[in-house]
């Protein structure tokens, strides 16, 4: 059964965007904003979909230490996300909100 997949990607300066774009085009992906794509994926084994995606991307895209690819999918009626490559960075919006954390000085 086909699975709906969104990926968010940031390959950094000099990243293999040609390889990624070729892979996305071959998947019939559509653009969903800066660095986000959607496509339907037919895994060989739905229990190993993340491994299959990661292996397929590694085969088609040069991965380096700046590559960040985040996969979002639906699993048993829950939306889940995980980094296939890279990891989370600090939030660029940190400090912009009007949220009072309720912490007294000295805590």
Please characterize this protein's 3D structure.
This protein has a domain at 3-64. The protein is 21% helix and 30% strand. It has 2 helices and 5 strands, in the order βαββαββ. A 5-stranded antiparallel sheet has the order 2-3-1-4-5, with helices on one face. A hairpin with a 2-residue loop joins strand 4 and strand 5. The longest helix is centred in the middle third of the chain and has 12 residues, at 49-60.
Distance between the termini: 52 Å
**Percentage of residues assigned to helices:** 10-25%
Mean pLDDT over the residues:
90
Task: Supply the number of helical segments.
Answer: 2
Class by SSE composition:
alpha+beta
The helix/strand series, from N terminus to C terminus, equals EHEEHEE
Are there runs of 5+ residues with pLDDT below 50, and where? none
Q: In angstroms, what is the radius of gyration?
A: 17 Å
Largest sheet: 5 strands, antiparallel
